[in-house]
Amino acid sequence: MTTSTAPASTRSADPERVEAFASHLLDVINHGAVALGLSVGHRTGLFDALSALPPSSSEAIADTAGLDERYVREWLGAMVTARIVEFEAATGRYALPAEHAALLTRASTPDNLAVTAQWFAVLAGVEDRIVECFHRGGGVPYEAFGRFHEVMAEESAQTVVAALFDHILPLAPGLNDRLRDGIDVLDVGCGRGRALLAMASEYPSSRFRGYELSDEAVAAARAEAMEMGLRNVVFATVDAALMTDEARFDLVTAFDIVHDQAHPDTVLANLHRALRPGGLFLMQDISTHTPLESNIDHPLGPFLYTISYTHCMTVSLAQDGAGLGTCWGRELAETMLAEAGFGGVEVHTLPHDIQNFFYLARR
Length: 363
Hints:
Elements: H1 8-11, H2 15-44, H3 46-52, H4 58-65, H5 69-81, E1 86-88, E2 93-95, H6 98-101, H7 113-124, H8 127-136, H9 148-168, H10 175-181, E3 184-188, H11 194-202, E4 207-212, H12 215-228, E5 233-237, E6 249-255, H13 264-274, E7 275-286, H14 301-317, H15 330-339, E8 343-348, E9 356-362
Parallel strand pairs: 3-4, 3-6, 4-5, 6-7
Antiparallel strand pairs: 1-2, 7-9, 8-9
Helix pairs in contact: 2-7, 3-4, 4-5, 7-9, 9-11
């Protein structure tokens, strides 16, 4: 009897499937490179410059954006071969089609996907430390993630603030009217305060408080509130797992932060206690389900699980936390809300939002 020593993966491999998978992997590598280019194009203002110009030379584009032409020309090469930017060889001119500009420029907010592309560079910055965690366990703390709050603020402006008044707050009937009349509101994990600042500006009769773990983010939020002349909003550095507020607020919000927490069960219990009787908890979180098999066809599945082990899960584990991860899912979220004491939990989606569930729960 002859026993093959070749790995099982190659002994039974179908050559046609290998070739097809190789093509798929080449697409993955190219798309990864394009994602980095989208981030660079956003941060440098190149997409905005291209959108404002007629078909132009690399020199004109660099001049408009205030950038070095040689770098701009090489970046344009990446964008042309990625079919993001069009190139006319006869004239040497580049153009960003209007259909592409609609998804890649600051003017296209909240549909600017170049904002989201910034995450790949942010997360790549901690790759060495994440690899170490695969070997020894533990996690990578928040402070290791450069530009996290800057990028998160831009992301929040698109996913939360842009939809806040027309779509998110109206999920709770009568809430807009109550905010206009004047209620007490707490936003936990407020980051740089984009959502809270927008509400404080829109509803001057209500009183707003933002809690955030990062001193840097709180300082930025306070500076923005001062610049806007807002006197009905206060920001403080508070760990939501240690907060002691009792029956102080009519509305508590948590936008995309509960699954990051070291002790999410304690945080949810604290938020329940902070509400006045009959008060409302509004939680935005990722639109996944707890079983993996229910997420296989999610349009953002690979992105969300990658975000999880390179940020959301690891920052929780860095604090010896639960490490729920980005994809903790609706089923576990509903269970934990009930265990924290919340009743009448409703779960909503928005037609334009493929990434989030919106939970409404009452004390």
